Amino acid sequence: MTSVNDPQPAKPKTLNRPVRRFVKRRGKKLMRWAAKFQSKQSIVPDTPFIDNSHFPFLTEFEDKWETMRDEVQEILKNREDIPGFEEVSPDQYRLAKARQWKTFVLYGFGQQLPKNCSKAPVTTEVLSRVPHVQTAWFSILAPGYHIPAHTGVTKGIVRAHLGLIIPKDREKCRIRVQDQIMAWETGKVFAFDDTYEHEVWNDTDEERVILLFDFDRPMRWRGRMLNNLMLWLMKFTAFYQEPKKNLADFEDRFEAAARRADANLEKLSD
């Protein structure tokens, strides 16, 4: 188990580059200004948790959650080849340590990862009907792990969580968003604004698996234009480029590992 009191991991050297530090500082200031404008432009409430009634398409996730759970259970047969979040995005080194928070990514920055998506066809199909889905992954949290308090990048998106494999003592597996706490439940989805401070605890001896996905916040046209511009600009930064390259590498590695596992099973059955 990983304790909240564990020492902070070393900062990856790539994050210390002067240009990257400059872009990150400027970017944070820009995002803070944009958040105020996006809040005023939002069509849905600017609250930590946002009621599902504002997003009718979430119903299909609850209707098909068992199939999605079955798909991720197949993926988890090769769990050692699923990367830790910090391996995909070095910027997350304070939140994800020692591969205790793993991510099997289906969508990254609005683009499907086709090889990964082929492992979860029903999940991918349902995600394709989410208006302007930006990111989506199976989020796999190790027993006893705590994700420290942090805030998201932009108020231009809404985040949703669908419970797939939840510890039996689910009240001990929970997320705090601002001053509100929610425990995951199998087959249930909820939406929230991750620009509010949030943190996660899995105070159980079981693994927690959810489907996490982000989609564009419903906003008036000026808010949508600003959000599209900011997402486009982000694609020129290391915050986007580095994970994009890493995702492609890990996608190929997982595909190769799955093929080896299938080949070994065939040999055993001969």
UniProtKB/TrEMBL annotation:
GO terms for cellular component: membrane. Pfam families: Asp_Arg_Hydrox. It comes from the Bacteria. One of its GO terms (molecular function) is dioxygenase activity. InterPro entries: Asp/Arg/Pro-Hydrxlase, Asp/Asn_beta-hydroxylase, IPNS-like_sf. Keywords: Dioxygenase, Oxidoreductase. Residues 62-218 form the Aspartyl/asparaginy/proline hydroxylase domain. SUPFAM superfamilies: Clavaminate synthase-like. Belongs to the aspartyl/asparaginyl beta-hydroxylase family. PANTHER family: ASPARTATE BETA-HYDROXYLASE DOMAIN CONTAINING 2, ASPARTATE BETA-HYDROXYLASE DOMAIN-CONTAINING PROTEIN 2. This is Beta-hydroxylase. It comes from Roseovarius lutimaris.
